[in-house]
Design brief:
The chain has two helices and no strands. It is an all-alpha fold.
């Protein structure tokens, strides 16, 4: 007989019918997960938007920033 590394029953899932108290807990957990996803999505969109606003789009702008801190030969990559 072979054994499985998968449990027969998850500790989070019960085979018993849900009571009214359990439903409110499940709802609050679901709302918490939804809020976390929303916060993560908003945070990611803020980071992407900041990258578009702060990063120069033209290589000449990046070259001038590089030349302020380094020699022209070191910045000749474009």
């Amino acid at each position: 007989m072979t054994s499985s590394c998968l449990p027969l029953m998850s500790s989070r899932v019960s085979m018993l019918p849900r009571s009214a108290g359990n439903r409110s807990i499940d709802t609050s957990i679901g709302e918490s997960i939804a809020l976390r996803r929303l916060a993560a999505t908003l945070f990611a969109s803020v980071l992407v938007s900041a990258a578009f606003v702060l990063a120069p789009e033209q290589p000449e702008q990046q070259a001038s920033i590089c030349q302020q801190h380094h020699s022209a030969e070191a910045c000749r990559v474009w």
